[in-house]
Amino acid sequence: MKLTVTLGVATLGAAAVLALATVGAAQADYPERSIGVMIPFSAGGGTDVPGRFFAAEMEKILDTDFVVSNVTGAGGTIGATQLSKAKPDGYSLGFMPVGTTTTQPHLRKTSYNADSWEPICLVAQGPLFVTVLDDSPIKTIDDLIAKAKSDKVVTGGPPPGSLPHIAQAAVALAYDVKFNYIPHEGINEVAKSMLGGRVDMAIWFSDAKARFGLRPLAVLDSKRSAEFPDVPTMAELGKPVESFVWFGFFAPAGTPEAIVTKLSDACDIAANSDSFRDNMKKAKRQVRYMPRDEFAKFFAQQYEQNGNLLRDAGLIK
Amino acid sequence: MNLGENLTLALSQLASWEVMLAILVGTAYGTLVGALPGMGTVVALVVALPFTYSMETPAAIALLLSIYCSSVYGGSITAILINTPGTPQSAATVLDGYPMARAGKADLALGWATFASAFGGVFSLIVLIVAAPQLARLSVHFGPVETFALILFALTCIAWVSSGSTVKGLLAGAIGLFLASIGPDNMTGLSRFGFGVDALAGGLSLISVLIGLFALSEAFTRAAYYREGKPPDVAGVGFRMPPWMDIRLRIRMLLQSSAIGTAIGILPGTGATAATFVSYAEAKRTSPRREGFGKGEPDGVVASEAANNAVTGGALVPTLALGIPGDGGTVVLLGALLIQGLVPGVQLFQNNPEIMIGAFIVILIANLLMVLFGVLGAQGFRRIMGLPEPLLMGWVVLMSVVGAFAVRGNPIDVVVAVLAGIFGVLLRLAGVPVAPVVIGMALGTTLEQSLRQGLMLNDGSFLAFFGEPIAVGIFAVTVVFIAAPIYSALRKGRGA
After folding, report:
1. What is the CATH architecture of A129-219?
2. CATH fold of A31-126+244-312, please?
3. pLDDT at position A7, please?
4. Is residue B81 within 8 Å of residue B101, measured between CB atoms?
5. DSSP one-letter code for B340
6. From the candidates A41, A103, A162, A188, which should be mutated to test the interface with B, based on the most B CB atoms within 10 A?
7. Is the Cβ–Cβ distance between B188 and B453 less than 8 Å?
8. Cβ B322–A191 below 8 Å, yes or no?
9. Chain A to chain B, count of Cβ pairs less than 8 Å apart?
10. From the candidates B337, B339, B445, which should be mutated to test the interface with A, based on the most A CB atoms within 10 A?
11. Residue ranges per domain, chain A?
12. What would the mean pLDDT of B18-37 be, rounded to a whole number?
């Protein structure tokens, strides 16, 4: 009897050692199989394009397949919820934008929050611009504000709570005016309204000019953009409103330290590689790399700041 | 550079074995995936997208464009042979295609579908070549008020599409409209009817409901009757080109359906599914053979298939000329162009005209190849249809479930598809047509959004809607379409 027990304990012990060894080995050999990258928006969209560029670089560096899946719907929260519940073993990762990770949790009762992630690195970041149609009589921000005061300014963007929506509210708040916001299903619909002359102004990314011939009036950043050096910043105009869209690489919280380190090292190479920068440049997108620790701080600060912005805009209590 | 030089440059770019192979593979693959229930145009494109990264730009564009065009055609094959539209765009093809197949004319139905698809595709391509920039500029002036009027008009199609009881058809349409209201409310950013289920926050996917209502309910119904007697066999599988006499008889129908498809395709956000039903309803209203609709009239197949393939060229108009995608498939195409380093929109037309011309040539070749694959594939379809029924339907169920999941990667879509399948069986037993559910669901979101956007733009005044001439015109046509049958029914009633 005693022998059996001892034997049992021994077996257990051996099993535990074995299990530990496998865990250790798994982390050392990571990645052993293909890695899934979840992108919470549809293929070909604003998040998908940089996400796929990035995944292609990571694939080369870690020498394994990065299988991109688009889990779409509800501002990216469906995909993010799925990822937050995935096994944190380093084989389920996500490429997610600012809205899904820092505004949606405040707006909806998402089952994930700031603590659900292990931020790996920041990959891309670009400021938003206040834009109008090229032949619009509005030439400066002052013209825009004057029109808002004397008449009305119709602006459009994705559903309330989206980044452009918060940004236009912040600009309006800074000048103590109000813009008439018309929500659209997506950014493509806004372009249609803009070109059709139903919307006077839209908050847009840096590809506004190349894609739709829109004219930027101001950049919502602390410094001027390299692409539009003549466009003033809001700070220069005396109203320091800033708003960026950014894309980060995330693992679910609880992913082993060794794996996150390995991924963030690979990210450093990927985000700074020539081919990635080339691809992003061709698609009129900006690369912005932030290593793990810096990104984690940045993420926490953005999460809080966007929550406050939403409260100021009266979108949440 | 003039047109001649651009054409030469385009041809030289296309004249490589890589591009030719891309078109060949793309068309074959697109037709096949389109035919699989649940795997629609978008899934076909997304699966192919990663392969384009390592390809040269002309080959990448050729691959995706041929998939885009041919997948729309592929949907008609399963619609005709097993009463299951492979894509939502082919939902209207079922209405006459399947009765034709049951009457032993499957080969002819496929012939009509193939011919009409290629006709619609080429028709819209010509429009795209001739007038893309002009039409694109016009399309942006079609605002929420006009869109609302158009969708309202499209909803009247339910009355024409539902054979049998009109009341049951309208009921089904209302159910569809309600299903569309589940999920995100784009006007406020909030979720509706989610019942606290996170996965429902994105709403129901049209494709999974379609899979349930058509494919799964078909499989369930057949399973239920399997032991009682052999279900109706589909006879005459193969491929038979419709005789020239019949084509000449229907040339007006082909032109009319292609024009409707192209026009609706050009308006971003309306969609191919709406186009096919509008085209079908219009055909049923105007065809001299309208008595045979719903019982296997080739006009019905022509109306649906010419229109849905014409949408491809139409949807490419705003996509290529303005960078605003016209439907789900063109969103993926747009992304692929971005990945290739080409920014679609005003500048692409000016800076890279050879790419545009190349794209036109690819679409033309793909549309012609489609006919070839239709003819060659017929042998394969015959084999597949010869499989024992449990095996065939089991395969349909399997593909359906995979398809439902593949669209958004959301497991709840599989649950939704199965529930929709059970619901579809109940509807069939009650004699309620299922097609109007799809129409309601396909149009519901846009109907609501355009109404609310229109009201917001006009400070909440509905009266302002009647200040827009185009909208007023569409409203008037809608009223006539609703009133005419009522009036004639009343007169007939009085006469009797």
Report:
1. 3-Layer(aba) Sandwich (3.40)
2. D-Maltodextrin-Binding Protein; domain 2 (3.40.190)
3. 43
4. yes
5. T
6. A188
7. no
8. yes
9. 162
10. B339
11. 31-126+244-312, 129-219
12. 89
